[in-house]
Design a protein that fits this description.
The complex is a heterodimer. Chain A is α/β, with parallel strands linked by helices. Chain A has helices at 12-22, 38-45, 61-71, 86-94, 107-121; strands at 3-8, 27-32, 49-53, 77-81, 99-102. Chain A has a five-stranded parallel sheet with strand order 2-1-3-4-5, with helices on both faces. Chain B has 76 helices and no strands. In chain B, α40 packs parallel to α42 (677-690) and α46 (743-752) packs antiparallel against α47 (756-766). Chain B is mainly α. Chain B is flat and about 175 Å long. Classes of the chains: A alpha/beta, B mainly alpha. The interface between A and B is medium-sized, with 21 and 16 residues.
Chain lengths: 123, 1219
Amino acid sequence: MATHIVCVDDDPGVLEILRKRLSRPNVTVHAVADGDELAALVSDTEPALVILDVVLPGRNGYQLCRELRGDHPDLPIFLFSGKSEPADRFWAEQVGATEFFEKPMDLRKMIDRAAELVTRTGR
Amino acid sequence: MTLLIAISAALVGASALAVLVFAGRLAIRRISERKLVAESRRIHLLLEEARKSDYDQLDKLLFDMRENIDLDVLDAEVRAELESCDDRLSERLLAAVSRLGITERYLDRVRNARAWAERARAATILASIGDPRAAAPLLEAMQDPREDRDVKLACAEALGRLANPEVIPILCAGLADVDEWSSPRLASVLVGFGDQAVEALLETLDHSPSLNGRMWSAQVLGKIGSSRAVSALLDHLHDRSEKMRLSVANALGDIGDLRAVRPLVNLILRDPIPAVRAQAASALGALGDREAVPILVTAMGDPEYWMRFRALEAIEVLAPEDITPIEEALGDSNAEVRRRAALALERLGHLDESFANLGSDDPARVARGRARLISVGRAGLSERFVRHLSDENDAVRENVALILGEVAARQHGPALARLLGDDNQRVVLAAVAALGAVGDPGTAGALVELLADSREEVRSAAAAALRRYPGKALAAISGALAIRLEDPSDRCRYHSTRVLAAIPGAEVDELLLARAARDHFAEVRLAAVTALGERGVTAAVDVIGDCLGDPYGPLRVAAADALSALGGERSIDLLLAAMPQADREQRDAICGGIAALGFAAIGPALDLLLGSGDDNARVGAAWTLGKTLDARAVPLLCALLGDSLSRVRSAAAGALAKIPTGDSIAALRTALDDPNQFVRAAVVNALGHNGGAGDLDALRGVLADPDGYVRGRAAVAIGSIGGRSGGERAYEILESDAGDCDAPLRALALGLCGIPAGLGTAVEMMRDAELRAEIVDLLGRESPARRERFLASVRRPGARVVDYWPGDDVAALLRPDELIDGLIDTLRNRHDPVARIGAVESLAQITDEQVDGALQGALLHDPHPSVRLRAAEILAARPRPELADTMAVAARDPHDGVRVVALRALGELRSVIHAGHVGPVLAAIGAEPAAVSAAAESAAAAVFARRPTELIDWLMGRQRPAEIAAGLRVLGKIGDPETVGLLQQFAASRDPGLRLEAVRALAAIDHPAAIAAMLDGLFDPDERVRAAIVAALPERPRAGMIERLEDLCRDPAVGVRTHLATRLGAMTAARAIDLLEILAGDHSVEVQVAALRAMLASSDAEGQERFRQCWQRLAPAGRLRAARDLSVLADALSEQLRSSLDEQRRRLAIQVLAALDPLAHAERIAAGLADPVPAIRLEAVRALSAIESDLLADWLRAVIDDPVAEIRAEARRLLIREV
């Protein structure tokens, strides 16, 4: 059974990096540019991890995270943002994000954490 | 002789030879032509035959013909065949032509023929042959700089037909040459290339240095219709050259891409060149987007008629179902626009509909049809109406005749005259009236015949119509009229007399005097006397004088009028002789008549009137004086204002109203407090007619008159003055002070003052049926001018055309629904934004769902921001749940003011707004200008007050610091302690602006955690942040707070320390005074002064005591500077000394005043000498001992006998010192 990761970012470059770095023989990376279909995608694929950019067209990462968390209390959700205010990290916690990463410094770290998490869950 | 004969013979011979040669050549040419024609026919038949067999054996046929037939003939026929055969066979034929050598022949000629015309023809023929080999030499010719321009053009056209795209760049380059002949032809060739030419044309459009090139490339792109060109064309829509803008607008219309709608709308609104605006309007029409209709309607108000013309064309295409703007254009100032509007209505079928309406039983439909057709006729389309004069419906014939009369087109006279024999009397009457209006001389005879008609209405109408004819036309029928004076019918003679009265000339005078004035029928005499007076026939004075005693009342009055008109001593004698027996009407006429003779001429009449003991005579005198309209009458009338009889005073006031001079108005003002209420009412009325803005205040006083009728008339007078002199002030007075006036009079006044809000109030009042009936009744008793003004302003606020006619049914004109509809119609359809704003102001006074709907429409769709703004303000003042959708749209309005109002309204509607409404609020947070953001912040605070988390989720996804800062301000406004954690994080932001907003937000949250979090920022590196925290410090400090503030006493920023000092002064903590003492020793005078002031203003005695101590420690220079700032507190200290119940504080007040400046404050200190407490009196005496003043002795006398010995002794010591 394949493991799914859902990545949401309006930057195609970032999505491409995530897709390349997280793809494995048994891991499918779903890259989407906004959160319009996120809830349906998560329900369909039951992903091992959701990675959300904060600044998105339409609903932002915090809003999406809060919505997902309501229906999926155990789903690992990473938020990552180009903003580096202390308040962002604080609020990520408030909306129920599993971890918060800053772009671009933490990108590698986030990918490692994601890979580790996917491997550990074995899904 | 012989020589002569020889020469003659030679000449004859030569001539004969020449004739022979000419005849021979002619014969040869004819033979040759016949041969060629025969050959041509033969070839044609052969080729036709060959075509039937698909040109089988064509090569052989052509080569046979080439051997036997002239090549030019063969060439021409083959080319003709080439053009007529179908594509399937053309290739075979072309190959044969090529083999025949025809193509080569022209390929050679196009480059090498000597004559330019031959080269150009060769190019054209090559194009018709269509051989691709022609492209190279044609191109070569085009690129040859020495080649003739016409040859080049022929080459271009040929290449166009060959469809060789290589030529496109060359053709584009050719567009740069300014040549009226070649440019359109090159453009036409390029259009033929279609999409293939677009890239090159775009290149030319963007980069050609030639205006001509850019202009033509735009037009070609438009004709090609390529949507790829739209964005490039839009870039050039604001080119510096008006020709370019014109071309681009044209092209955009041709392409028909809807992206061009908004830019073209902007062009209509902003382009300074009328032709460009007009072209943009045409283009909008071509685009077919109905969204453009409102702006086109607005463009109908453009000052340039051509613009209006084009906008009208576009409206006709885009919105044929709404003809309101087209109908309005019927009243345009320009004849071409009017005619174009009329044609549009005809094309859209509305004229037929209008004619059908004329036959309707519904009066409203008839009126609509009639009004429209009158406008159409005036616009020049009346010839379309004539055929309807023979309509089988009587009402249609009648109305068409009346309309032609209104249009007054003389050419329709004969057609109207044919209706005089109509079976229907109403039709005949209409035709008669129309003929009178038309005034066609050829029809006057037919009307004279009608004077003897058996029907009185017809006779009367014919006479009335004839009187309207021009004098020259009537002179021709005077003989026929004279015969009518002998007619046995009284009415016929009467009408004939009235017509004769309109014909100038002594002969007619004689007829009137000799026959008509002596007629046995009184009305004939009346008509004659009136006419003789008007015509100035002085010979008629005695005949007219006889009529002064006529038993027929109207004739007596007419005789008085006629004599007045004739004037002269004899006339005055006759008039005065008639006065004693005159009834009221005749006396009025006599007074008017005498007055008309002039002030100087009425002395005897006045002697008679004023000397009479009869009260009515004095009233008559006042009337007469008023009718003179002469300023010299004013003193006499002023005297009559003091008459003992109130009726005389009232008449004098009415007369003074007719003579508006400074003296008359001054006299009226003084009469405002007349003891009789009728006189006061008359005076108020007079001022209403003649007064100016300067009388408003006096009339305002009358609004409190004890008599209700006088108060009401004062309101009407104020409204009348307001209507003449700008009604703002009048409206204010009526709004504030006319509450006690009768409602109908108040409504009349509000309507008269002409202010839209007043009109709206009047309309709202008329929605009450009873009140409306009273207003109608009231209007019936007002002067016609005043009634007309009221009706005009209430029915059509701001209207340019008054649509009220005397005689109209006033009640019908004041139907509230119609008035409201009128206002709504003005708001929706009038071009003039001032009129629309006026309508909005009026509608603001009316509470009605339909009105709210209209205002919402204006808010969303009106092109003028001021209209939208007022509509928004009015709607916002009536918050209803249904408004939320409208306000959400308005919150995105391009006008900032509208956005602000809409956002505030959304905040008010917080309980009903949903996610769809929140978007515009959030979008405006942090937006420019600040007012919009502030409104959005308040709205968001209201909307998210109970669910701040939703706001924060949104806020955290924002990137712009301005948005985030604004969001933090919203959190501060919400003041929810749950947000403290997040704000604390922002207070640690790297952005000082965010830190500042975060601490301000924390300061606004009334919660210990918020205050603690705020205090964490006390040592923020940014001075603004620290200052904000200090300014927000609570008056009751929490435990440990003062200790943290001690470090702040050494803050590097003077501003922070100053703020701290001020804030400490307001704190109740005992330790605060210690910190103030530290700050009082600050090296900055500003901080010192703030600290001392805080101590001085402190509510406890400790503060003032510390002040005294600090003051004494202060260096003299510091004191001097500080004293200036602190002296403003001396009054507070003085008050403390006089009224504080605390003995200690009173004593301190003396000490502090003495410390500040004993001499300056000596008088204040001296107040302490009367204190009941001896110690304070003693303190005051001692404080005063430091000064020397002339007043000291006076002050000390209060205590010289003080019961306390020490005080007495001190006082005496000081007195002795003074001595």
